[in-house]
Design a protein that fits this description.
The protein is 72% helix and 0% strand. The chain is an all-alpha fold.
Amino acid sequence: MIVGVPMTQTNIKPLLYDRDSYLWLEETIASLRIGDFQGLDVLHLIEELEIVAGRDRAEIESRLGVLLAHFLKRLHVDSAYDFRGWEITIREQRRHLKISLQQSPSLKRFFVEAFDRAWQDALIEVREDYPQVVFPNQWQFSRNIDILLTVKFWE
């Protein structure tokens, strides 16, 4: 304690955040539930909310990259032995993307923004894994979210 400065809740909460972030989170939730807005550690609360938002965007971009890489494999790599595994991964990524977009529909705009980065990541991956295969430089189908999450492009 600094001499002459009382240890109020406002002074304690940032210290708690640095010492035990989970306990800080529990106490912050409890404060919000009872309407104790005066005692909130607002700066760390904003930081945590930004982390959550960033994590959601990162998950969308990562899953979209995996989805596109497996589309590329399924469409261009002649390996019937692997088709089933790639299709399972495609279904799994689609399912997770659908869940994320149902929970947070506003992430659809990020889906569109992330497409080009995810496409480039997917191309780098498949070209490294299958150097003998010629993959297209551009996505040859629709970028519409509903189509990407439902259509079997290989049939």
